[in-house]
Fold this sequence. Notes:
Elements: E1 5-12, H1 24-39, E2 48-52, H2 60-65, E3 75-78, H3 84-97, E4 103-110, H4 129-139, H5 146-162, H6 168-180, H7 194-199, E5 202-204, E6 207-208, E7 218-226, H8 227-232, E8 239-247, H9 252-255, H10 259-262, H11 265-279, E9 288-290, H12 296-305, H13 314-319, E10 330-331, H14 336-339, H15 344-360, E11 373-380, E12 384-392
Parallel strand pairs: 2-3, 2-4, 9-10, 9-11
Antiparallel strand pairs: 1-7, 1-8, 4-7, 5-6, 8-12, 11-12
Helix pairs in contact: 3-15, 4-5, 5-12, 6-12, 11-12
Amino acid sequence: MTTRVAVAGVGMIPFKTPKNSESYDVMGEKAARAALVDAGIDYGLVQQAFVGYVYGDSTCGQAALYGVGQTGIPIVNVNNNCSTGSSALFLARQAIESGMADCVLALGFEQMQRGALATHWQDRPSPFDRFDEVTLAVEGESDAPFAPRYFGGAGAAYAREFGLAEDTFAKIAVKARRHAAHNPYAVFRDQATVEEVLASPRIYGPLTRLQCCPPTCGAAAAVLCSEEFARRHGLRTDVTIRAQAMVTDFPSTFDDGDMRKIVGYDMSKAAAKQVYEKAGIGPEDVRVVELHDCFTTNELLTYEALALTAEGTAEKFIADGDNTYGGRVVTNPSGGLLSKGHPLGATGLAQCTELVWQLRGQAEARQVEGVKVALQHNIGIGGAAVVTLYEKVG
């Protein structure tokens, strides 16, 4: 019998730009402590920890958690690119479901540098070599950074097939800023108009600067436990992980010459399908989603990958306001990666934190009414997609 996994506690710190950031160990300790306080337990009850980060030396997880306590527990460091935080969560959930542990901490943090993402090792093959080969063949030469090339190319491919008004992607950025205005943890809470988004410097393809997530520093954490452990220690069990899936690349990522698949469309679609089937529900039952909007183009693609709207209908979904309050499903009430920020290792656990708050009714001005289930989507190029469905119990 599978053990049901409760999210007993969550915590995060306000995200900041690299210029204003604390060091990773300080951020990680603060987020871990916040999650433990929220759960109402001492670190001594935690039996394992999975810690995610992308940019840092080995055992940064230990450096962050030793500030909380040195209890001798297994601490496993996780790096799965932009899906790192959700990968740590995935491993923590598996540890409990398998019966190997009763209480596990998942922590994610990132101390990023200013500027676009870049690879750091020039003396060995890059994990992006195959992605770059396809991108070069499809998009041609460019001096643009690799991430906007991937995601800008994917958005352009969608627009070529289905046709889009010039302002469609920009509307997503405007929505992100509007949602983030109510999130004290977000980096960018000032508002932006469609005209301002389109007038910002062009980065690649349809993407302008205000349609790209900023380099961000931050940390977030979650305490997971079995329901039996939670009852024994008087912890809350009102939010559980009902279903979760991780999917990596298929041959279609590289063989189809489609930039949408280069950025994980097939992974996301397959992971979502697995989650819906495991949970026994459909996308029509979901009222709130935190999805991976590293670029506006990816948010649009993800609407369809998660089956929130039918293939080829994302523009109407946006135009009708079905992606925001008053519509069918509120996407990224936190402001998402575009406005809350994207500290790579922390993002998946920040999404988890926001959705747990939504299910508890603790999201304040961001609260979506009538939330019973919440969906999370987190991807990393290279690649991995993690989709998680949370459920309100009782």
